[in-house]
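Render this sequence as a predicted structure.
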Amino acid sequence: MGYFYWVLFFIVTQILLISCTNQQESQNQDTTNQNISKHSKSPYEITLNTDSQSIHIKLINSTFLGNPQRNFYGNNVPKNWNLQWKTWLGSGKTIVKKGQEQLWSGAGWTGQPLFFFENDKPYLLQGAYDYRLKKIDALTGKIIWQYPFEDVIKGTGTIWLNHNTEVPELRALVIQGSRQSKNFHKKNAPALKAISLLTGKCVWELNVEKTQSYSRDADASALVINDTAYIGLENGYFLTFLPDARTAKHKNDLVQPKILKKIKLYKKEDTHHHGGNLVIEASPAYWDRKIFVSSGSGHVVTYNLDKKKIEWDFYVGSDLDGSPVITPDSCILISIEKQYIKGNGGVIKLNPYSKKVEWFYPTQNKSFADWKGGVIGSPAIQDSLCAFTAIDGFTYVVHLQKLENQNTKLFDNQTEVSTPQLVFKYPTGPSISTPLLIDEHLIVAGYNGIHVFQKQNEKFRLLKKIEGRFEATPFIYQKRMYIASRDGYLYCYGE
């Protein structure tokens, strides 16, 4: 009997060991799912069962920069950059400074297309300056449906899959924002809407309240964790809300989502320094039960999901446009514009655990359009590298951890910090787009076209330049790149 129990014990322990090993491998395959969802169902796949058909949805690029850490750019860079198709996105008028109306064409910042499969067929979602969100056949460029907003659409949306309802129209929603220049002085400015991916119809819309900010727009891409959404609005507030259309209620002549929490990310002194420029344009990033938000009021805040409050407020003082990016060593990268600060703009690496500045890379103070310098778009990362484009006309690639100079002046032009090692610098022209780091390639879009570089022996060489004027961030998948231009078109390049 003793021998039998020893054999049984050995078999059971081996089964448990194999089970634990398989579980660990599964967790390693998708750290994003591990961090976000406690549900057994995937946040990236769902089936919509209608009376006539069953539609399987698989998300690839479901939010700005691909995931909650804002650091996914696609896969399989093409070898040939042939134009496959181009689709006219249209034009629309919007009110800018001093009540001036301008005609904008195509799509701009951030403007990254969302990418998903419907029964194995690829589709895009693209907001445009003709006021309309468009579902587009990714193979042909054909527009499937369009939904009209009140003003031009600048930012990238977020696709959310709702496993808690069987209503097919409500199981896949696109949370999309827009400008609201024409509604700024009106009762309602419904800048954020949820559109059914199945029908292309609106199921709720959020009124962005009027505050001391000069804007009521919604440029940011929402972050959805399980069944709760988080977003910063251009009225200066950070919102926690329920995206589920079943919880939406009629309020002020609109069907609005349920707001759980509303936090003002500007202080009284910020209104003296920035005037009405208190907007939150950046998309929130998520890691380790914390949400990171950059605000135009000059604050980078850390919101603790468990405590449901802000636990760290790092003050920069500049207008902060780019979205926070999570690095492999659990730090955050922040883009800094040259505005309201004494020093230079650039990119800063912050450690949210030690609450210290790891490094700062300053860019040149060189004006372009209304910008005085610094970095507008988000940085891109891959392994040990960080790439970003600047207003000064250069693309920079720096090392995330190797440091060079320890006497670099911070954005306040007083504090001395370290500078990361410069790996590559190239005059690609002014840009507010986020570059892509995929495989051994660096893809940079800007006002002087698209530059494609390949890394060889720790150096980058120029492979291809595509002419055009681009503000939007591209997306690459299965040897095709999709990018919107200010000339009015959405382009598909590749094989």
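Summary. The radius of gyration is 23 Å. Residues 1-39 have pLDDT under 50 and may be disordered.
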